[in-house]
Amino acid sequence: MKRIITALACAVALTGSAAAEIRIGHVYGKTGPLEAYAAQSHTGLKLGLEYATDGTMEINGEPIKLMEYDTQLDPARGRSLLAEAYGDDDVHIAVGPVSSGVALAMLPVAEEYERLLLVEPAVADSITGSNWNRYIFRTGRNSSQDAIANAVALGGEGTVVATLAQDYAFGRDGVAAFREALSETGANVAHEEYVPTDTTDFTAAAERIFTAMNDVEAERKLLFIIWAGGGNPMSQLNAMDPSRFGIEIATGGNILPALTAYKELPGLEGATYYYYEIPENPINDWLVKTHYERFGTPPDFFTAGGMAAGLALVEAIQQAGGSDDTEALIEAMEGMRWETPKGTMMFRPEDHQALQSMYHFRTEVQEDKDYGVPILVREITMDEMSVPVRTE
């Protein structure tokens, strides 16, 4: 009997120990075409948790345990791993993934287990739109925020645009949002071109775009590119000399390695989510300094996003009185404002999308950088962007 009581006491002690731990699961594509995005996101998430906890990695004395799961950019695998994280590993909050297609597969799992999924950095509008459920929050920007910011930067009367995008949720949602946002500025989209995500030869797509735009009469003709991952078409398209048809190439921001193609296009304009020299605030100062000290490089596009997610989680748990209970967190996070490397963000109560600033940039060539540098034209604040709200 004594042995049984002792065994039960040990089990209770172990259960109590496990409960006194905040488990966060990062479910993301560590391997595959978007692994550079994933690595940045994970680094940023860890830095965000570190900054928000003053380096203790504890909230109200409870340690944070960060667990990793590799989706390999496979929607079915992402769905299975999220169920494993919630069900087998008792993860309280999940973060990720990188791919919009994987994210859409994961959303119903969060609803089934009634636990939070903080989406970062998957972009498709439908994540906080038609496929949304109340357990989904997103710190990453969505396609509409990208689109509206780029429309503000590029649109106007007399402007006609062709688009080139990848043929999946990220590309199609992005073009749809961009087309709608442009219409508000007096510009319009004359041609849409979609290609497989693994396309490496853009000759045929370019010829279709040039043919469609050749006879268009406009004060300004733009070819706007929406692309993620490798095989960026910008250099190929630029080599085909679209200026023969009076066409300028335009695009949004991207990670530093992708900006090497921007160096060929000084004066290129668009809107970006983040570039480390643009925001001026204490958190970004710390991020830039710390990243240089530890890695010898500046933080990149998705590092800032990952950090915003880490900061949001700690702020939410603190506002929930130290609780990681799902309902307490939802109550704390709806309408929550918190500080990030980009300044203030806010979770919109209606759909849990993070509202945030974007940045109109113009590319400049600088001798000490091997990429086109996005120079700030102006900050586009959250109040300037009428981001569509999810409807039932």
Descriptive account of the structure:
The chain is of the alpha/beta class. The protein folds into 2 domains: 22-141 and 280-355, Rossmann fold, CATH 3.40.50.2300; 144-272 and 358-384, Rossmann fold. Helices cover 38% and strands 22% of the residues. The strands form 4 sheets. Strands 2-3-1-4-5-6 form a 6-stranded mixed β-sheet, with helices on both faces. A 4-stranded parallel β-sheet has the order 8-7-9-10. Helix 5 (143-154) crosses helix 6 and helix 10 (301-319) crosses helix 11. Residues 21-364 form the Leucine-binding protein domain.
CATH H-level superfamily title of the largest domain = Response regulator
Radius of gyration, in angstroms, nearest whole number: 22 Å
Tally of extended strands? 16
- What are the segments in which pLDDT stays under 50 over at least 5 consecutive residues? 1-18
What's the shape?
A: globular
Question: What do we call the CATH topology of the largest domain?
Answer: Rossmann fold
The class by helix and strand makeup works out as: alpha/beta
Helix and strand element order: HEHEEHEHEEHEHEHEHEEHHHEEEEE
Give the tally of structural domains. Answer: 2
**Helix content percent band:** 25-40%
The CATH architecture of the largest domain can be named as: 3-Layer(aba) Sandwich
Q: How do the strands line up in the largest sheet?
A: 2-3-1-4-5-6
- Quote the distance from N terminus to C terminus: 58 Å
Fold blueprint:
Layout: H1 2-19, E1 22-28, H2 35-52, E2 58-59, E3 62-70, H3 75-87, E4 93-95, H4 100-113, E5 116-119, E6 136-138, H5 143-154, E7 159-166, H6 169-183, E8 188-195, H7 203-214, E9 220-226, H8 234-239, E10 247-251, E11 269-272, H9 282-295, H10 301-319, H11 326-333, E12 337-340, E13 343-347, E14 354-355, E15 358-364, E16 373-380
Parallel strand pairs: 1-3, 1-4, 4-5, 5-6, 7-8, 7-9, 9-10
Antiparallel strand pairs: 2-3, 11-15, 12-13, 13-14, 15-16
Helix pairs in contact: 2-10, 3-4, 5-6, 10-11
